[in-house]
Structure to design on (258 residues):
């Protein structure tokens, strides 16, 4: 299945370059091009797409205006494309998948498309699991489907991208609009919400013990309980992390299934 893709940029040369680069990708089908924010809004309302490459500075409505008018919940996977680095923080605040600067380089675009594939795969896995569970529930069964969870995560960092083995992640910390992956003495910043990561990672191995923390159960050394409310976990590296009552129950459930 090809990803229906829309290119939005007021510069014809920029649109031509991006379309040319994307033409080499078999799973990408460019279904339209827009010259300004108004055309983008009209296109998304009449013919939804899977992937949007969106320029930020366009005549009339900006890329951010487009997101405001469509609504984040109804936006396709969005990659901002612009000549200005100073919009990066705001781009990630509105949960853009990635941020490319002009002129777009083939290697950098390739790294972005890796993220696109991983996000599509994780969404499909969640939808498949939910659909299967709904069918099993209707049949009176609680059998869970087999899901292939990612073994590695791609961490973009400007011109340099890194791969992190999921099994090496000890715990994950919420950090504004990012998630901080703690891997030994190193840490990596990933533009994902804690909710998205909790859905992507194997729940038997990674448990969200608090709104601000996800732990790899294999690296939990001790559980410290204080009454029936919140407590703490002690990680193998010595870190002490807050744990909610729901997190404690989820951690116990994960250990029973290990």
């Amino acid at each position: 299945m090809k990803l229906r893709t829309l290119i939005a940029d007021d510069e014809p040369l920029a649109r031509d370059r991006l379309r040319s680069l994307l033409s080499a990708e078999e799973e990408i089908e460019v279904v339209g091009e827009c010259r300004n924010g108004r055309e983008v809004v009209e296109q998304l309302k009449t013919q939804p797409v899977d992937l949007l490459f969106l320029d930020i500075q366009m005549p009339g409505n900006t890329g951010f205006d487009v997101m405001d008018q469509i609504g984040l919940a109804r936006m396709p996977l969005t990659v901002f494309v612009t000549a200005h680095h100073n919009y990066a923080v705001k781009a990630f605040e509105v949960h853009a998948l990635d941020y490319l600067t002009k002129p777009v380089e083939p290697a950098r675009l390739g790294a972005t498309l890796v993220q696109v594939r991983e996000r599509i795969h994780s969404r499909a896995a969640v939808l498949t699991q939910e659909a299967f569970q709904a069918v099993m529930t209707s049949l009176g069964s609680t059998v869970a489907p087999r899901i292939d969870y990612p073994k590695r995560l791609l961490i973009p960092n400007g011109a340099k991208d890194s791969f992190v083995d999921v099994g090496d992640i000890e715990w994950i910390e919420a950090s504004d609009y990012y998630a901080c992956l703690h891997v030994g003495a190193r840490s990596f910043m990933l533009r994902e919400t804690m909710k998205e990561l909790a859905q992507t990672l194997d729940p038997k191995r990674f448990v969200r013990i608090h709104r601000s923390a996800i732990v790899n159960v294999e690296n939990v050394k001790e559980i410290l309980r204080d009454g029936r409310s919140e407590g703490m976990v002690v990680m193998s590296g010595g870190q002490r992390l807050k744990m909610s009552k729901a997190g404690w129950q989820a951690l116990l459930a994960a250990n029973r299934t290990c």
